[in-house]
Amino acid sequence: MQRIYGIDGMHCAACTQKATHALERVPGVTHAEVMLTPPQATVETTEHVPFETLRAAVASAGSYTLREPADGLIPGDSTDPPGSKESLYPLILIVAYLAGAVLLIEVASGHVLAHRAMQNFMAGFFLVFSFFKLLDLRGFADAYQMYDVLAQAVPAWALAYPFAELGLGIAYLLGWSLMLTNVITLVLMLVGAIGVFRSLQQRRAIRCACLGTVLKLPMTTVTLVEDLGMAAMAAVMLFLP
After folding, report:
1. Positions of CATH 3.30.70.100 in the chain
2. pLDDT tens by residue, 108-153
3. 2-67 in CATH: which number?
4. How far, in Å, are 6, 12, 39, 145, 150 from residue 154 at the CA level?
């Protein structure tokens, strides 16, 4: 049995972890996942667990309040503003635009070069994706810590990551030290893929933070393909002449 509740009073990733651990200690609860964006708790049980029991457990972890809508909370329902329902469409559209722009640049140059096309695509990718993350840096960091293995080990990395992407975008755009840039990209994308893969394996109902918190993207295999695809391009560029 799974139900989704609203939860108030959380401010950071540490809050979500405290609330999660408190819920998982309740007898009958097999799995709990607390999210900051949106503020909600997904609780799986093997038997009926009274709402008051769950609310008391959450309250014991801090100044948090569990809310129970009439029929449970459905992601993208009335708790989210209009137009904020989770969808992969923005991600697909952005990638399509970047790919189209790169193709036009290659056609206009008169010579289609794979190496240059990948370099330009990666420059645009990192610049655009860092932009969306920086629109709400704190919100991104909190969401990113929910699944990224490095951000969980070193919380400051979640705040630094958008700037790392911005730096990579500029490096690709300027063609600066491409070997080093590709190595860094390869490592970062593979590390990111580990966190995404773990979340998918655990079937965690969390949102992908790849476009920050402004656009609501679900965590799916598309996110994993995105990370692995960027890692693959970086690896190919390391060996292209």
Report:
1. 2-67
2. 988 888 889 999 999 999 999 999 999 989 888 888 888 899 998 8
3. 3.30.70.100
4. 28, 14, 23, 9, 6
pTM of the model: 0.67
Neighbouring-strand partners of residue 7 = 66
Which residue in this structure is represented by tokens 């080990």? 153
Q: 205 pLDDT band (50/70/90 cuts)?
A: low
What residues form DSSP beta bridges with 33? 42
Tens of pLDDT, residue by residue over 1-24, are 778 888 888 887 778 888 888 999
